[in-house]
């Protein structure tokens, strides 16, 4: 992945914000999305998106399957639009 | 294929253990196992394509040659908006959404496995673990839909020929 030209964090953040706004509305279980820029375990620059779950959401198997598809579609869209850092996504319960 | 499927089932069971207070160990092992399920699924098919006439035990030996980080690089290349021309002509068509789902899941699950196994400052919750199991399950389904296609053959070929393909500017 080392030959991809990495742009500024702001440029990738703007792209991520744009993709997320195009995929509105967020699934009802998602309260907010947190972004973090750091290297992944291989040392490559990456963007980590944490999709925070609304408290007391009912997360049965169907909901997890739907949310998983949503996270995949956001990730693929980011890559298709040329994000320079690899996108990692996770579903996280409210703290 | 049985080992891969058994691992996926085990990952699912681990994510649902301890109904009221799931243990970090169970949730972390679930994510790690979900990654290994997909890793073995792809390596089993790769070995089958490269050496269909080897007995099963010899093919299992061959599977040990596959390198996690090399497969990650291959997956990332297949996720770029377009493939380099020589590779694109081998694949013959734009990369399908099924293969992109498999490649994406592999890279994201590998990172999650690393975090689950080594990052003790992170906290694992049931939703996170369940979502990673589902990601692996989605990748299994996507792979099943195209594993006999031309693009799947080229994808698996890259696991072993990554360095040669890079030298020849295929990748």
Question: Could you characterize the architecture of this molecule?
Answer:
The complex is a heterodimer of chains A (95) and B (171). Chain A has 95 residues and is α+β, with helices and mostly antiparallel strands. Chain A is built from two helices and three strands. Chain A is globular. The model of chain A has no long low-confidence stretch (mean pLDDT 92). Chain B has eight helices and no strands. Chain B has helices at residues 2-16, 24-50, 56-63, 68-78, 85-91, 97-118, 126-146, 150-167. The two termini of chain B are 28 Å apart. Chain B is mostly helical. In chain B, helix 1 (2-16) runs antiparallel to helix 7 (126-146) and helix 4 packs antiparallel against helix 6 (97-118). Chains A and B meet through helix 2 and strand 3 of A and helix 4, helix 6 and helix 7 of B.
Task: Kindly summarize this structure in a few lines.
Chain A is α+β, with helices and mostly antiparallel strands. Chain A has two helices and three strands. Chain A has one domain: Cation efflux protein, cytoplasmic domain (Alpha-Beta Plaits, 2-Layer Sandwich).
Features:
heterodimer, A: 95 residues, alpha+beta, Alpha-Beta Plaits, three-stranded mixed beta sheet, 2 helices, 36% helix, B: 171 residues, mainly alpha
Report the count of strand segments of chain A: 3
Portion of residues within helices of chain B: over 70%
How many domains make up the 3D coordinates of chain A? 1
Structural class of chain A: alpha+beta
| Number of helices, where a helix is a run of at least 4 consecutive DSSP H or I residues of chain A | 2
Overall SS class of chain B: mainly alpha
- End-to-end gap of chain B: 28 Å
Summarize the biggest pleated sheet of chain A.
3 strands, mixed
Task: Provide the gyration radius of chain B in Å.
Answer: 17 Å
> Which strand-content bin applies to the residues of chain B?
under 5%
The second-level CATH architecture of chain A is: 2-Layer Sandwich
Low-confidence stretches of chain B: none
What kind of oligomer do you see? heterodimer
Rg calc of chain A: 14 Å
What is the strand tally of chain B?
Answer: 0
Instruction: Give average pLDDT of chain A, whole number.
Output: 92
Largest interface: A-B, 28 and 29 residues
